[in-house]
Specification:
Number of helices of chain A: 15
Strand order of the largest sheet of chain B: 6-7-8-3-9-10
Number of domains of chain A: 1
CATH topology of chain A: ABC transporter involved in vitamin B12 uptake, BtuC
Shape of chain B: elongated
Shape of chain A: globular
Strand order of the largest sheet of chain A: 1-2
Largest sheet of chain A: 2 strands, antiparallel
Oligomer: heterodimer
Structural class of chain B: alpha/beta
Distance between the termini of chain B: 53 Å
Distance between the termini of chain A: 46 Å
Number of strands of chain B: 20
CATH architecture of chain A: Orthogonal Bundle
Strand content of chain B: 15-25%
Radius of gyration of chain B: 25 Å
Largest sheet of chain B: 6 strands, mixed
Largest interface: A-B, 39 and 48 residues
CATH architecture of the largest domain in chain B: 3-Layer(aba) Sandwich
């Protein structure tokens, strides 16, 4: 049993991939058309926005914090980017503006959490409200539509006949980040802080700076998701992206990123995002109402988090016991070995 | 680095001058001067709260001193952060290893370096090979034993070319053989010219490993010198209060406890659990049994397990003739045992509500069945405010706005409102002022007169001596000695708590 739990915690990404395969095969058993190449490509293409959000959020969660403002950040950056392009700006100018806004929101989150010591959930929840509200102010509550066809077509570009450009870029980004987090000297800082803040301080890791960077990256990726959103959907409503934060967090957790910090990878988060974005499609193929989508996402999130917490608690308690038991053992050996001395 | 070696061996590796530090009104260090040379192993000993850890944290840059300065190899340094200390070749191996449990050994060690991974890997494998340690670098840190974790911590320090290593109670969680290998390593490092601060509670270790001894008491160095000039008696002497006259050793052996024919209200038999082993003793009504020992001796673990908050492996707890082993805490309180925990902020008070709600929180069921009987609650609260001389503006004052001493009285009131037969007090006077301390002592004496048994856990040995009728000392998870009557003296208890008490001390 211990071995099983240990194996499960060590190969969390594999577990996610296995879950994804089982889910797809299971749906295919009920409705074979789900497993057609076209449909699977649709599932993957449809997950790009979630993957981008999940990448950003996983930085923050791995460093031991949380960010629930990504949905609103996505909405605002999508609205800004779309309206600029509608009004004739270049894609480059619009993208840079959107990414800057995303980074600024992340910076605010990061400063609030580290310098003002506001709990991350409260800080980002507040920022979420502010940003969501500013979308309404910015758009005056109207939809941003009538986007140029060229901009909308970016989302449809495919390479070699079937590989979506956005998906390809996203997968490359994930690979790059995965490599950075695991190989670069500073890449491990995020996980180190989430794993043991005290230890990280003691070996001279700049804790506050790294946490702020995580939030900024999270904002930038949310903005990237916003640009993709505007291009793929073709219009932006003031409610764009609301509820996406839960999906992004659930995707991370499903992908093996521990909410207590320190554990997880962006690759896992990517597969988690694919599962999350496919749920509504799977429901349709199973002839359920897709209204169940959010409910199922929430239930999955809770089940995984609770299971994770129980596993962590189990190991923590085990470690504590072993530590205290080591003391007992030692005394016995001392009594044996130096029994003569204390006479 | 090498140039300073050539300047002459007598430039101290680290020189500490007049370091002072207080936290709020609590003075922890009162001007500490200390010089440590290359290759010194300095045993730093002192009771709880003597300031050892604070001094080391200042050297490590975790705390900033209020006054004084530190020189490393003759150069004045400003240790404003742990990274500054690391850059100056200082490394602290904390008592509880601070590893990243989800990373491998190698990742744990090389984290925070700017060098290339491949270069670091080469240096690290060479270092491990050089030391002859059998430590697999690809293991995950959470699979390591405590000893192995400590080795990882030491490797971290060595890979940084640290010249000054601080080992904070490194043997407190090690087995005997692990201690042996640690000593070998320390000797090894010493011959390589590394200076080591060795904090310990075990006086025997001092003679095994150190070449110099520094005794810290009340934020000051009371004794210092080469280890050869000391023996255990002298170390104990250095730990005692300055104006303390050693009691003339009593000729008579401790007599049998006079209450032996009474029925004990509380008894533990061969109790084993996590952190304590084979504990047996009895407490009689109206008796104060002191439980002395150093931090980590297993006293709190024992109390928490008795109170039903942790697993008891074997043995039994008997309260007033009834076996309460492994019962739930709520049942145990109802049967008449109350535990007042050591950290009142964490476990003792509800700080955001008023005094009355705190005092009555343990006995709400007795006040009425569905709604709280306000009159009874008021009367109960008034009684304790008056008896305990709790300084409040009224029953409705928030507990968070009280001073530490008054908070502690509220905690006691809460515990005693349940009318216990026995109370376990864990460090009841930690962090409170002298006046409040006197009141707490008075409350404990009143309890005794009412026939309540008291199990007093305290690291303040003078407090134990003053209050206790009988004393059991715990050392490394076991009761190693019991004392009664005239045998309860500060030096006996101190020796027993440090594990060096000898039964037949000649007068």
């Amino acid at each position: 049993m211990n071995k099983l739990i240990q194996a499960m915690t060590e190969t969390r990404e594999l577990f996610t991939v296995a879950f994804l395969v089982v889910l797809f095969l299971g749906t295919g058993l009920v409705n074979p058309s789900f497993l057609s190449l076209d449909n699977i490509l649709l599932c993957l293409n449809g997950s790009v926005i979630y993957i981008l959000l999940a990448i950003g959020v996983s930085f923050v969660i791995i460093a031991g914090d949380i960010d629930v403002s990504v949905g609103a950040t996505l909405g605002l950056t999508a609205a800004v980017c779309a309206s600029m392009i509608r009004d004739g700006s270049s894609l480059l100018a619009a993208s840079i503006t959107a990414l800057t806004i995303g980074a600024a929101i992340g910076l605010v989150n990061g400063l609030g959490v580290t310098k003002l010591r506001i709990p991350a959930i409260i800080m980002t929840l507040g920022v979420n409200g502010v940003v969501r509200g500013s979308i309404y102010v910015y758009t005056q509550g109207k939809w941003v539509e009538n986007l140029p066809a060229v901009f909308k077509s970016y989302g449809q570009i495919t390479l070699a006949g079937f590989v979506n450009l956005f998906l390809l870029i996203t997968v490359l980004i994930v690979t790059g980040i995965h490599f950075y987090l695991n190989r670069a000297n500073k890449g491990k800082y995020f996980a180190a802080i989430g794993d043991n803040v005290g230890g990280a301080t003691l070996i001279g890791i700049p804790v506050d700076r790294t946490r702020i960077i995580a939030f900024v990256l999270c904002g930038i990726f949310a903005a990237l998701a916003g640009i993709v959103f505007a291009s793929k959907i073709g219009f932006v409503t003031p409610t764009a992206g609301s509820g996406y934060e839960m999906k992004a967090i659930a995707a991370c957790v499903l992908g093996g990123v521990s909410l207590t910090g320190g554990v997880g990878s962006v690759v896992g988060a990517m597969f988690g995002a694919v599962i999350m974005s496919s749920i509504s499609r799977i429901l349709v193929f199973l002839q359920f109402s897709s209204n169940w989508d959010n409910t199922i996402t929430g239930i999955l999130l809770i089940i995984i988090v609770v299971a994770d917490a129980l596993i962590q608690k189990f190991f923590k308690e085990k470690a504590r016991r072993e530590r205290l038991a080591a003391r007992d053992l030692k005394i016995e050996s001392i009594l044996k070995d130096t029994g003569g001395e204390s006479r | 680095m090498s140039s300073s070696n050539n300047d002459g061996a007598r430039i101290p590796a680290i020189s500490i001058k007049g370091i002072c530090k207080s936290f709020a009104s609590n003075v922890v260090l009162r001007g500490v001067d200390l010089e440590v040379y290359e290759g010194d192993v300095v045993a730093l000993i002192g009771g709880n709260g003597a300031g050892k850890s604070t001094l080391m944290k200042i050297i490590m840059g975790i705390h900033q001193p209020d006054g004084g300065e530190i020189e490393i190899f003759g150069k004045r340094v400003n240790l404003s952060s742990p990274s500054a200390a690391l850059a100056n070749g200082i490394y602290l191996v904390p008592q509880e290893p601070m590893l990243f449990p989800n990373m491998t050994v190698e990742e744990n060690i090389v984290l925070g370096f700017r060098e290339k991974r491949s270069a670091l890997h080469l240096r690290l494998t060479a270092l491990v090979e050089n030391l002859g340690w059998d430590l697999k670098l690809d293991r995950k840190a959470d699979s390591l034993s405590i000893a192995e974790q400590q080795l990882v911590e030491i490797l971290r320090g060595l890979l940084r070319d640290s010249k000054i290593l601080i080992l904070d109670e490194p043997t407190s969680a090690l087995t005997f053989h692990e201690i042996e290998s640690l000593f070998r390593i320390v000797t090894d490092l010493q011959s390589n010219g590394i200076s080591i601060f060795y904090i310990t509670h075990r006086l025997t270790e001092v003679f095994d490993i150190a070449n110099r001894v520094v005794i810290l008491r009340d934020g000051q160095i009371t004794m210092e010198g080469p280890v050869g000039q000391f023996d255990q008696e002298m170390l104990i002497q250095g730990l005692l209060p300055p104006n303390y006259q050693r009691a003339a050793k009593k000729e008579k052996l401790c007599k049998d406890f006079s209450c032996a024919d009474l029925r004990p209200v509380f008894e533990v038999q061969n109790l084993c659990g996590y952190g304590f082993t084979d504990i047996s003793f009895k407490v009689f009504p109206g008796e104060i049994l002191g439980l002395a020992g150093v931090v980590g001796a297993g006293r709190t673990e024992f109390a928490v397990a008795v109170f039903g908050k942790d697993i008891i492996k074997s043995g039994s707890v008997i309260l007033d003739g009834e076996d309460i082993t492994g019962r739930k805490s709520s049942v145990i309180i109802e049967k008449g045992l109350t535990y007042v925990p050591e950290d009142r902020h964490l476990n003792g008070i509800y700080s955001i509500i008023d005094v009355e709600a705190n005092v009555t929180s343990g006995v709400l069921e007795q006040l009425n069945k569905y709604f709280i009987d306000k009159k009874k609650a008021n009367a109960l609260t008034d009684k304790y405010i008056e008896n305990f001389r709790i300084k409040v503006t009224g029953r409705d004052q928030l507990v968070s706005s009280l001073s530490g001493g008054n908070q502690q009285k509220v905690v006691l009131a809460k515990a005693l409102a349940a009318n216990p037969k026995i109370v376990i007090l864990d460090e009841p006077t930690r962090g409170i002022d002298a006046g409040a301390r006197g009141d707490v002592y008075r409350i404990i004496h009143e309890l005794k007169e009412e026939g309540v048994a008291v199990l007093l856990i305290s690291s303040d040995i003078e407090e134990i001596v003053e209050l206790s009728d009988r004393v059991a000392t715990m050392y490394q998870g076991r009761v190693n000695h019991t004392f009664q009557g005239d045998c309860i003296t500060v030096d006996h208890l101190m020796a027993a708590a440090f594990g060096v008490y000898q039964e037949e001390v000649t007068a």
